[in-house]
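Worked example 4.2. Below are the chains of a multi-component assembly; read each line carefully before continuing.
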Amino acid sequence: MLKKEKLYCSRIEAHPAVNEFKNPKITISPYLPIPGYAGPFGMSYLMQLTKILIDFHPSNTIDSLPGELEPPLRDQKFAMQASFCVGMGCPDKRTLDYLGDFDFDVFSNYTDINFETGKPEYGLPFEQMNCFCLDVYAVLHVERIDGQLRMKLDGFEIVDIRPQGLEDAMECYVEAIMRLSILPKLRIQLSDLVFNIQNYVTIEPTPISGDVPFNPSIAEDTLSVFVNLNS
Amino acid sequence: MKRIINRAALAKTTFNSNHVGVLSYHALQVKEAGAYLGHVLYKDKVVATINIDSSEGCGNMQANIDFLQFTKERIGHTSEEIISIKPEGYLVLINSSGDTPYRFQLLKVGKKPGGDVIADTYKLGQGAVYACTLLIPGSYTLRHNGKNTTMIRVEYPTAQTDRKRLQEPVRIKVGGKQDYKKEISVLPMQGLVFEFETEGSIEITLKEQDKDKGLLQKQILEAQKSRKGTQKKKAMTKKTYKWRNPKYPQSK
Amino acid sequence: MAHVNLAVNEAAFKEVFDVLRDNLALSKSDSGSWGPFSASYSAGFRLEGGDIDLKNSPDEVHIDELDIVYDPLSLSLGIDIPELCTPSFCLIWIPFAGCVLRVPSYCIFSADPDISIPIDLGGIIQSEISGAFNVDTRYFNDPANAGMSEHLAQANGVPDKWQFYLEPIWLDLDLIDIADTVGNILDAAIDWAIDTLLGPLPGVIKDIFSWFLGGIVDVIRGILDIGDDIDEWLSDLFGVSFGLFDFVLTEVAKYFANKYPFFEFENPYPIMEATSDLIPVLMPVANIQTDITDTEFVISADIG
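Applying the procedure described above to all three chains together yields the following structure tokens:
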């Protein structure tokens, strides 16, 4: 997959520094296993989040939230709209026929060839990526936890998939990816928001009061964080 | 700190007119014009010779000869320098450094080989002048031609002792019919000038040294006490030093 | 409206200022000669204390009672004392003619070079600085990152920076007090110097020498021109003769104005730190504005 950028569902336009520092453009995950298949091959696949829009309360950037997310956007919330694309590296039929006839028990006599039956260690070769993209919507809020700003998912919706069960299953899976993989990487240290002035003063979140009813606060198209810098 | 201490001077307790030494002065008159030789003797041996010329054309009434120059390296050396002196002028002999008991003879060059001795510190004649400055406070005996004559008292100076007295020496005539005072009083470093009326020699010897009174230490303590007493603790005049940034011309 | 507003109150600003203050450490040596009296000194100084007052319109930071600690402050006085020489007096005096023969004078005690009196004045002088400052925002374009990308510069520890300096508008140094103990210190020092100078001499000779000079303590104090007011003397020595206090003021001004920013941060700023396999997320910061009110110092900036 790493070498087949041209087949990606959406072109990745990385910051030049990513290439400069030879950072990976994609995160590698294990191959998708093929149930009931004892060989070492799995399916190559790609997931991408593209075309992200963010809209702080009040809502004026994302046209309309799906009804499942109970529009209009509530106070102290922000909405996100994105395209969630999935691509499957589809092998050609001749490759599948060949591997289908292959007897992997032959390798049990060779002590230097060692693979776990059923666990994909290699990707099925492919020259074509079958992509589809879904519009996804999310409603989130921001919390302060352990000196960090963290984004929390309140609701998630994929639009227009039938049958309903397929939509529900996909929402479940993508939501798990959001909560467990993507959002945890978007934590911002409070100290970084104040340019590391904590070297000189103590940073404490401003207590909730009449002047600061929410902290952090999402209002007037702005995410605000209030901290007290104390001697 | 490098100190120059003339230890011979600080320790001198005996003065003898026979010898040219530190803190003492001999004045020998050159009466007539002519060529002279000065012999410096140590233990009856001539260790150095000086050429002296006295002529009417010379304007010097006084010529100082410092015996410091007669170091061991110069023993037997005849100085190439000719000392010029006016007839009736005086040679003043001093030793600014040490107390080696040098004897000096002045000879007039003439028909007699080696010259005629016309003056000798061993026998200071009429008209000769010997002077000294006593340093150590105490009582000294003054002997003339071996006989006790009088006592010399060197006072122990205090802060009230007038230093102006140092400008005037005490003059004593020796020889002839003398009525010496019972005691002569001088300050340390004050000149004692002995004018010889007859041939002879004098010797001054410290008999009893005054005890150290520790006046310097007392002065230091008094000065400190006085400072503490007179220096009233007043609020120090507050002084302000200013710096102004030229970029802000309106700053005060 | 700016994206980021950083408002620091007076107490917190003082914390920031304290770090700046504590980093100043300077030293100075100098010497001078005034006839029979010479002196040299070696001084190190640092700052302590200080009260901050933020002023609005014009926007200024006022600092008062910033103590200068002189540590060490070593003074060495050199004194050219007269020598002990035999007096020149008249050997032969003739009436109407006057003195015709005078004995030459020579010296039997001298010291070269002069008496050297070392004096430790650490903690003796109390002085304070007060002043008004302007906050000066500067962009530091690090020459070490020439030709580098922003990420490479950040990785190599040579990113560009936004820096904030306290630029002095005016400074006053007030000489507040000189400790009472300076008199004792000077007395002890003179005492020691005399002892060192005359130490090898017998006590009787010391007394005569002192008398001959007119009282050596008075001679020394006379040469130093101390008089009754040691405070004034010391103040004039350092302030006028050596110009120490003007030097302190100039160096403090230079330090605050140019040598040490009281606050700085990288630009672009790493809003998310690097991980083991990913570069940091760098966020450009622009349109920096500062404002001083009577209670706060505010930095405003746009990000992104």
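Take a moment to check your reading of the output against the notes. Chain B has a mean pLDDT of 85. The CA atoms of residues 109 and 115 of chain B lie 4 Å apart.
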